[in-house]
Every structure is written in C-alpha cells, then in structure tokens.
TrEMBL record:
<dbReference type="InterPro" id="IPR000357">
    <property type="entry name" value="HEAT"/>
</dbReference>
<dbReference type="GO" id="GO:0005737">
    <property type="term" value="C:cytoplasm"/>
</dbReference>
<dbReference type="InterPro" id="IPR016024">
    <property type="entry name" value="ARM-type_fold"/>
</dbReference>
<dbReference type="Pfam" id="PF02985">
    <property type="entry name" value="HEAT"/>
</dbReference>
<dbReference type="GO" id="GO:0045505">
    <property type="term" value="F:dynein intermediate chain binding"/>
</dbReference>
<keyword id="KW-0677">Repeat</keyword>
<dbReference type="GO" id="GO:0003341">
    <property type="term" value="P:cilium movement"/>
</dbReference>
<dbReference type="GO" id="GO:0036159">
    <property type="term" value="P:inner dynein arm assembly"/>
</dbReference>
<dbReference type="InterPro" id="IPR052623">
    <property type="entry name" value="DAAF5"/>
</dbReference>
<dbReference type="GO" id="GO:0036158">
    <property type="term" value="P:outer dynein arm assembly"/>
</dbReference>
<dbReference type="Pfam" id="PF24573">
    <property type="entry name" value="HEAT_DAAF5"/>
</dbReference>
<feature type="domain" description="Dynein axonemal assembly factor 5 HEAT-repeat">
    <location>
        <begin position="138"/>
        <end position="330"/>
    </location>
</feature>
<dbReference type="InterPro" id="IPR057978">
    <property type="entry name" value="TPR_DAAF5"/>
</dbReference>
<dbReference type="InterPro" id="IPR056497">
    <property type="entry name" value="HEAT_DAAF5"/>
</dbReference>
<feature type="domain" description="Dynein axonemal assembly factor 5 TPR repeats">
    <location>
        <begin position="21"/>
        <end position="128"/>
    </location>
</feature>
<dbReference type="Pfam" id="PF25757">
    <property type="entry name" value="TPR_DNAAF5"/>
</dbReference>
<protein>
    <submittedName>
        <fullName>DNAAF5 isoform 4</fullName>
    </submittedName>
</protein>
Length: 656
C-alpha cells in the first residue's frame, strides 16, 4: 500500500550507502518524490536532511532532481501548507545554483508555487491584489521582483525559517555556511520591509558571519546587509548597528553598516548623515584598531556615505575628513592609504572643490585643534601624533594658515625630555615641509614671526651633545632640519645671520659627529652661513671656525673633505672682505701650512680642491704663501701642484 511504500522510502536511501552512480541518485530522488507525493506526507521530515545534502552534489542533474521534486511537492503535496517552511528553503537555495538550467527550473517552479498559492488565497489577498503598490522606486537594479504570492509565502514563514538558517550560517562545514549565506539575501528580497520585525536576529547573524574567512560567505552577507538598507528604515537599522559599534567596534559591524548604507536610498539616508559621520569620527570607533582590515571597513563606511549622499556630504565634511585622516595615519598597507586618499579626492569632488588641498584649507583649523589637544601626552605611537604628521605632511599651502597650532605643538613635542622616536618622526616631517616652505609652512608669509621659536626652542636644544645612539640620531635629524631651513630660500640674508648667531657654536660641534651625513650637512650649513654673512662676522667668531673645518680635511669620507674644502674657500672670502686683515695673519699662515700638507694627498680630486682653496687665499699674504710653499715643495711626491700654485701667486696681485 502507498503508506507502507512511503515508510519504506524513509529508510536510509540509496545515496547514503556506498556512493552509487549519479543516475542511481537521480532515480532514488525521483522515486522518493513520487512515493511521498502519493503516500504519507509525514515522511517528508525523514527525507528533508538527505535532500538538503544533495544540494551539495557535484553532479548538476542530481541537484536539478532535488529542485524538481521539492517544487512538485510545494505544488501538489496534499499536506503541503504544513511543510512550506521546510520546503521553501530547499527550492530557494537552488536559485543560486552554479548551473543556469538548475537556476531557471527552480525560478520557474517557485513562481508557479507563488501564483498557485496566490490563487488559492485570493480572498485573503484581495486588498493587496486590488491595491498593489508599484515596485518601490529604489528597488535593487538587476533584480526581478517576485510575484505577490512568493513574497507572501516567504514573509509568512520567515519566523520559522530564520532560526535554522541563522544557525547554519555559522556552521563548522564551509559548504553549509556558503549555501545558507546565499539563501539569506533571497529571503530578504522577498520579505522587503517585513524584514524589519526580524532585524535584530538578521543583524546579529550578519555581524557574526561577516567575520568568516570564506569570501563567499562574506560576499552574500554584504548583499544581505545592502537589502536591509534598501527595505528597512535607516532610523531602525542605524539604531541597532550604531549601538553595537559603540559597545564593541569590530570590522564585521563596520562592513554591515557600510553595506546597509550602500543599499539605502539617498533621501532616506541624508537626514542621518551628520549623526553617522560624527559617530564614525569618535576616537573609540575610528581609533579602535590599527588592523588594516578594520580600517578598510571603516573606509568602506565613508565611501558608502560619499557615493550615496554625494553633495549632501558637505554637512559632514569635517567629520569625514577626520575619519579619512585617521585611516591614512594608522594604515599599514600603502594601498589602503592610497584608497583613503582617493576617497578624500571624491569627497572634494562632491563638495565642488578642486581637490583635497581645498578640503584642508576649509578644515585645517578644527582638525588640528582636535588632534593637538592631547599633544602633551603624545608618544611615538599616539594616533593623534600620526594624524598630526599626516596633516602637516599633506596639507600643502593650508599649513601656512595653521602656524599658531603647528609651531607650539612642535615646540612642546621636540623638547629633549620627550619620546625620542616621536622627536625623530617630527624632525623628519619638519625637514620635508621646510624644503618646500613657500608651498607649505610659509605659504602665507607668516613663518618669519616663528623663526626665533624654531631656532632657539626647537633646534638649539636638539643640537646639544648627549650620549647615546638615539641622541646622535636626533642631532642628525636636527641638522637636516637646519639645512632644509637655510637652503629653502624662505629666509632673508638678515634672518640667516640671526640663525647663525644662535646656532653656529652648536653646528661647529656637530662637525665631530660619528654620522658622515651629519658632518657633511654641517659643512654645507657653515658654508651657507659664511656666504650670507660676508665680512660681517665678528673676527673672534670667524677665527674659531677654520680649525674645525681643517680637521674635516682628514675625514674618512671624501665627500666631507670636499665640502670642508669648499667651505674653507668661503671662509677665506670672508677674511678678504673683513677689515684689519693683519689680525688674521697668523691664522692664515697656519692654514697655508696645513693646506700644503693636503696638497700632496693621494686623491687627485682632493688635490684639485685644496689647490682651489690655496688659490683663493693666495691674495691675502702672497709672500707668506710663497715661502711656505717653497719650504715643502721638495717633500711632495710631485711638485706639479706646488708649481701651479706658485705660478698663480705670481700672476695674481695681492689683496689690498
């Protein structure tokens, strides 16, 4: 009898035994379908789990058979109404099958089921059929709206389907998680605004599932979150998502928020724009993690707001800039920083300005005010320091209008008592902007009024000698900064002389540094100082300079030796321009003797450089130079350079 056959069909089916041929599996599914169709419907429960397993079958014909049988049951099973909540997920899962033929069969059967149910319940649905509202204007593009019967079937059974589905989305088997995650957006597309009453369960599931390592699961969940944004009022979903973010900020909750906003219509999201941006800019959210995934999802939130709200973003521009700055500051990956930079450009574009430089012009004051509020507590790892560094490095001409914030912050953070790594970082950034001073720190021509603070309070303390490698690195950084300042063409000759007056003693001591780079830059700085001062330097101070430069002619680095020789040329020019040359006679005589030793250097380039120094100084005391040269010419390996020097002295008249 049919009931007996139905019970027999509920015994372990052939596909649960050692794996049979796919045709056998198809035949078993079709036979089970027919037996249950015409037998005892109660046996559906016994075979459901086996049918669900066949949705994972490698052979499309097997999956097609499942869709066909389940669709047949939904249409023709006598007791089908009591099994809707169990059968609907099986048929709807086939709508995402990888084979088009299976998808088309499932879609066709599902529409037939909906239309049949709609006809059977015509009285109940009379109002909805007669006064059916049109498709919502913001309905997802590329999606065909299911017929009313299909939508009603899902909505009426959603409370029974969701618990099991939400459980399966976090199953330990990857395939189960992928299938379940694919089914959720299908259900939400049918449920439309009826999803609101199940929103807490749906969002809780999405928060968890968006942490999945399987990309397919995360992809389906972002699609589900977009549909939440499309059909649920932002007032409702924002309240739930933002409260979760406040309690426990996470990359997954940010992804759900970004996706929901991406799916939300502009006119619905716009009233909440400022509140969302303000929330995202809070330190407990935007500085919650330096993990690149977290920051990437935070960036997605800003991108969603900019792409959905467009010109309306002007109302929250400052907060969005704040978030983007934080991402640029904290991101480890260059690609992520570039994306944040591109988003800044997009924000500028929707605001109708030419680029992010204009955004800095608009917001640099408030941005720096917030960032620098805690500067007395900064260390090298403070997020605010990193943000400050980004603003200073990237704001361009806008920086010139923010000196009242920038210089006092630098002054406080570059004191010797502060974190050494932080000082190194800030000196590096300061050097960079000083090299382009006219386009950055001096764009408004205001830098001169802060020059004394920079030289006396920032550079001078850091050029003082302290033991240790870190202290040496800081002196190198400070010397680099001073070189950037003196070579940037932003200072007048008088201002450079003021800097020289303050810093020359410290720079002379840095000629002895272990770092070759420091010694080289120090030579160049002294050269600049001397060129600018001409003969105006105090004779006593001028005389103290040349012995330090002479020592550098014995440097291990030829670059430093060449720079020292070049600076000695400038020193001799200063002596020429000074009054009372006799005051310098003994010093110049000593210099002649030392230079003549180096004129016999094994390196030809050094010999050439020393010859130029001696030629420059020959006009001061030519007779003295001739005597000194003749006294050593026989000691040199080659007399060539000495002879060239003597010829030059005879040809050039003495300096008066």
């Amino acid at each position: 009898s049919p009931p007996c056959a139905a019970r027999a069909a509920a015994a372990p089916p052939p596909w649960r035994r050692p794996r049979p041929h796919w045709k056998v599996r198809v035949a078993a599914i079709e036979a089970t379908g027919a037996v249950i169709q015409f037998g005892n419907g109660k046996s559906v429960d016994d075979v459901l789990s086996h049918f669900a397993q066949r949705l994972f079958d490698d052979v499309p014909q097997v999956r097609r058979a499942v869709a066909s049988v389940v669709g047949g049951w939904l249409l023709h099973l006598r007791d089908r109404y009591s099994f809707f909540h169990k059968l609907i997920p099986l048929l709807l899962s086939s709508l995402n099958d990888e084979v088009p033929e299976v998808r088309q069969l499932a879609a066709s059967l599902w529409e037939d089921v909906g239309l049949q149910w709609q006809k059977e319940n015509e009285e109940d649905l009379k109002d909805k059929l007669d006064f059916a509202p049109p498709t919502p204007p913001h309905y997802p593009p590329h999606e065909r709206r299911p017929v009313l019967g299909c939508r009603e079937l899902v909505f009426r059974n959603l409370s029974k389907i969701l618990p099991a589905l939400c459980h399966d989305i976090t199953d330990w088997v990857v395939g189960t998680r992928v299938k379940s995650a694919q089914l959720l957006p299908v259900l939400l597309l049918h449920a439309e605004d009826h999803a609101t009453q199940h929103l807490e369960v749906v969002l809780r599931t999405l928060f968890q599932a968006c942490t999945d390592e399987e990309a397919a699961v995360v992809h389906s969940c972002t699609r589900s979150a977009e549909l939440v944004g499309t059909f649920v009022s932002p007032e409702v979903f924002l309240k739930l998502i933002l409260s979760t973010l406040k309690k426990t900020p996470s990359a997954s909750s940010l992804l759900v928020l970004a996706s929901a906003m991406q799916g939300c219509p502009r006119e619905a999201l716009q009233p909440h724009l400022a509140a969302i941006a303000t929330e995202l800019a809070q330190a407990h959210i935007c500085q919650a993690s330096e993990n690149d995934l977290y920051l990437e999802r935070l960036l997605l939130c800003v991108q969603a707001l900019v792409s959905v709200c467009r010109e309306d973003c002007g109302a929250a521009s400052l907060q969005l800039m704040d978030v983007l700055l934080t991402i640029v500051a904290l991101a480890g990956a260059t690609g992520l920083r570039d994306k944040a930079q591109e988003t800044m450009d997009s924000l500028a574009m929707v605001e109708g300005v030419s680029g992010c430089q204009d955004l800095y012009h608009k917001h640099i004051g408030p941005l720096l005010e917030r960032v620098t509020a805690s500067h007395l507590d900064w260390t090298a790892h403070s997020p605010e320091l990193l943000q400050f560094s980004v603003i200073v490095a990237q704001s361009g001409p806008a920086l010139g209008q923010a000196l009242p914030h920038v210089v006092p912050t630098l002054r406080a953070c570059l004191q010797p008592s502060r974190d050494p790594q932080m000082r190194l970082k800030l000196f590096s950034i300061l050097s960079t902007v000083l090299l382009r001073a006219a386009d950055t720190i001096n764009s408004q021509g205001q830098f001169a009024s802060y020059l004394e603070t920079v030289t006396k309070d920032i550079l001078a303390p850091s050029l003082q000698w302290h033991a240790g490698r870190t202290a040496a690195a800081i002196r190198t950084a400070a010397v680099s900064c001073l070189w950037a300042l003196t070579s940037s063409e932003v200072l007048s000759a008088k201002q450079i002389r003021d800097v020289q007056e303050t810093l020359m003693p410290q720079v002379l001591t840095t000629l002895e540094e272990d770092s070759q780079m420091t010694r080289l830059i120090s030579c160049r700085i002294i050269n600049t100082f001397l060129k600018t001062s001409g003969g105006m330097t105090d004779p006593e101070k001028l005389i103290k300079i040349y012995p330090e430069l002479l020592k550098r002619l014995d440097d291990v680095s030829n670059d430093v030796r060449m720079a020292a020789a070049s600076t000695l040329v400038t020193w001799l020019q200063c002596v020429k321009g000074a009054d009372g040359k006799s005051y310098y006679q003994s010093s110049v005589q000593y210099l002649y003797r030392e230079l003549l030793v180096h004129l016999d250097d094994p390196e030809r380039a050094i010999q050439d450089a020393i010859l130029e120094v001696l030629k420059e100084g020959s006009g001061l005391f030519p007779d003295l130079l001739v005597r000194e040269t003749e006294a050593v010419i026989h000691k040199h390996r080659s007399a060539t350079y000495c002879e060239q020097l003597l010829q030059h002295v005879q040809a050039v008249p003495a300096t008066q």
